[in-house]
Structure formats: C-alpha cells, structure tokens
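Sequence in, structure out. First:
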Amino acid sequence: AGLNIGVLFLRAVSKREHLMKTINCKFRQYLLLAVMALLGGCAHDTGSHNRIGSTDPDLLEKDIRQVVAACQVNASELDRIYDRLHNAAVDEAGRSTNDLQLGNIQKAYLYVHQARLVAAYQIRLLSDFPYVKESRRADFLTLRAQDLDRAISEMEAAASFLEVYAAFIQDRRVLGEIETGRQLISGTIYLYEKLLKTLRPAVNPAAPFTRDPYSPFSRGSSGE
C-alpha cells in the first residue's frame, strides 16, 4: 500500500510539472498581479447572503477599476493566444492530412475568441461607471451584475469546450496554448465572481419570492 501511494504521488508530481511547463510564464505573472490587485481592493467584500457592506462610490469605482485593469490584461493575452492557435491551424492544414485535429484546433481558437469578446464587452460596460449619474448608479450596477452573471456562464462554457477539444489534439504546443487560454478564462471568471460580491450591497433589491431576496442576479435563479 505504501509503495502504491508513493507511485501515485510521483505520478501526480510528474503531471503537475508537465502542466506547468505548458502554461506561459508571462500569464502566470499577469494572473498573480490581477489576483493580488483584486484582493487588495476588495477588503470590504460582503459575502453572498446579505446587503451589509460599503456602497461608497469611490470604493466601488476603485474595485471596478482594478477588475477592469486585470481583465484587460487577460483579454489582451487571449487575443495573442487566438492568433497563435490560428497560425497553428494554418500550419496543420499545410503539413498534415489529420482533418480531425485541424478541426479541433479551429474550434478551440474560436472559443478563445468568444471568451475574449465576452471579456472585452464587460470591460467596456464597467468602464462607464465613473460617468453614470449618482441617482442612476444602483440601476447601472444592477444591470452590470446581471451581465456579469451571464458572462460567467458563457466563459465557463467556453472553458469546458476547450477541455473537450484538447482531448483530440496531439500537438503539445497547441495544447499548451489551449491550457493557457483556459487558465486565463478561469482567472477572469474568478475576478467577475469577486466583483459580483462587491457589487451586491449597491444593487437594487430583487423582487419578492426570488431564490435570493437580496440579489437580482442569483446564479441559477430563473426569477420564480
């Protein structure tokens, strides 16, 4: 039993080392900076089931600005991954008759592009916060919260599809790009989820009898 545990541990370590080699070093630095910036700016996080927290517009603007900055980094890197995967598909088309692998590379870069578009759209909307009239900010943040919730679902789907297509690709370089893209998408989802918690005290109360009476953007709620 001890030998088996040791073998499993060595295999786990080997798999982890292989995975880390496929992830772009620059991305790891960017993600660390993004997470550190967000954690530093969200000290007044309110939790998921109450509206007790800061609605100070300056603090909200600071948190939104930090998320926007971090997501801009992620979106730019997703752009570069899209370009590299597109070029890899062109190379694959020129040198191989493996249509299945080519098709999966093409589908993968399309989902990277989709995730990038979703991220860019949220960045543009959130960047408008400083210019919204104070009397309309609760309405604005309520809409942004609902948008962020949908964006999370769309990006989760994109990350899942990337995993599916990666299973049918043998090119290690392409697999490394896909894994980096998936990690960037996961990092963006994390930032969005943190921001949703920060926005919770400032949004309009939900209608009665919703799943979470304090939230108009409860995950999975259909508004019954």
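Second:
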Amino acid sequence: MVFISGGGNYRQSAQLDELFFRMSKNILYIPGGLKRNFSGYEECWKWFGTVCREHNFNTSNVDMYLFLDAIKDLNIYDGIYIGGASDMDWLYNIFVNSGVADKLQSYFSMGGNIYGGSAGGILLGQSLDLQKKNALKLLPFSILSHYSGNNTEIESYFANNTHPIVILHEDSGIVYHDKTITSVGLNPALVFFSLTEYVTLDNNITIEI
C-alpha cells in the first residue's frame, strides 16, 4: 500500500498515520529530502519520535538513514516513511543516484507499505513539478499537496501531462492499493482526470483508478 499525506502537521494527518503505524512493526524513516542545517537531522528525528508516540509506536523499531546508498535491503521493513523536501529535484536525485529508487520499485511490487509525506508523496507519482519532470512513477497518477484552492496549478499540470492528479489539502490524504484510491483525512481528496473531469472523495470513500 501507499499512504500519501497532504503535508500538514501530525494532528492533521493522524487518521492516515494511524493506519500506517498499525500495519508496521518496524519502519525505515528517510528524512533525506530535508537538507541538513546547523543542528543536523536531530530535529527530523525529534519530530518523527513525536509522531510515533502519538500512535504508541516504539521508536526502537525505527531505523533512520541519512545516506541512502548505505541502505542494503528494504524488505526487512514493514513500512518505509519518506519525509518532505524543500527541493524536489534534490530529493529525486538522491533516490535515483543511490539506487534506492529501483529498490523501492521492487519493494512496492512485493506488497511493501510506503508512506510519502508532502514532497515524499509527490516523489512517488508521475510528475515531479506539475510540468514534465518524471517522478518515480510508482503510482499511475501525480500528486499535488498543500493545496490552497489555486486552480492555476491544475491548469499548468494538464497543459503538460495526461495522467490523473490527486489534489490534497494539508489535512487530507489517501491510501492507494490494488488500483484503488481511498480518501483518509479531515478534508476530502480531489481526483482530477482532466481539467474539467474530477471527483471529490470524502473520508473513507474509494474509487478505482
């Protein structure tokens, strides 16, 4: 399964997070899209620890990798959590250049659970930037997170792409499984098949895609 959040805080994504943690006994956490600052990645670990505690998940069952080329085997994990990023191109490149992109494809095809938060979710779709830049293409659609009602972004996407796009507010999310999308969140998810054809998915509503 793939879990995608719209990029809000851990309270906004609590329903989606609960599903992910419930299905995972041990987790690989990849915060690599967030560039290191003066305090390193300590804040990333502190934040993820807070999320874990919200769902009674023991952080001793979490591995965090900063250098992706050190990851040998994804299949030892029940779940993989990919955090957000300030630079989408950089996030994409560290996955591809490290070889983890190919490993992730295999992990997904074998039924592994992947969580993408914000840019980590966009990375798994078809388009990286609403234009023509390829993402990892695990999903048969693209993702737009942090949606604020600006439809010019949707117009820009369909000027350059033909795949559907899932639009997520910060407090909305989806689960993709077996060619279906289920909305999980406080706000509906929007699925645009074209500029004029779309459906609104209220919480717990499922459609085929």
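Remark: Helices lie at 14-22, 42-54, 88-98, 100-109, 119-122, 152-158.
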